[in-house]
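Human: We require from you a protein record containing the residue sequence and its fold in token form, and nothing else.

Assistant:
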Amino acid sequence: MTETTVFIVDDHALVRHGLRAFLETQKDISVIGEAENGKQAVAELRARATDHSLPDVVLMDLMMPVLDGVGAITALHSDLPNLKIVVLSSFSETERVHAALQAGAAGYLLKNSDPSEITEAVLSAQRDQVHLDPAVAHVLARSMRIGPGIVLSAREREVLVLVARGSSNQEIADTLFISERTARTHVSHIISKLGVASRIQAALWAIREGLVQVP
């Protein structure tokens, strides 16, 4: 298995060093860099893009001086749309979470998460999957505003459940014995029917409607 590389962004040195120490104990994960604020992170990651040494996943704090996490995610997502960024924050307020996900974050964890959750979030992002802290998912699901009268086919519901569980299009295809292209088409139709902008929002709808249970 290819090693998953991680870049840590947090203004607290103790947090950065603690995360590095923990992640480097995990099999097939290595930390290749750190930054202490969003501005430094953007500069460093843009430089890494130039010399083809970008990390697979960035762990990003939100509340930082100079340039905060949302600002950094926005800048990086504009320049490097395929870069996987997972927020690791102390805050679960709806507005902050929405802002981070809208900016382009691929996941959102709270800093009081179990260490194994951090590992799972990193690996999920590397696999193009979404990983949300259960408390964050509940907050977001309750805040969603989607009109009534939405009807999904039985197959679309099956696909949506797998999306909400974090499955990639290929994993959905493998589970349902369909092609990856068909799985991708189903996901696009679901997003269109729900009138949402992303897989994350579709997953949150599934959680709110009780199709998937969050711990």
In short: The beta strands are 4-9, 29-35, 57-60, 84-89, 107-110, 131-132. The chain has a mean pLDDT of 86.
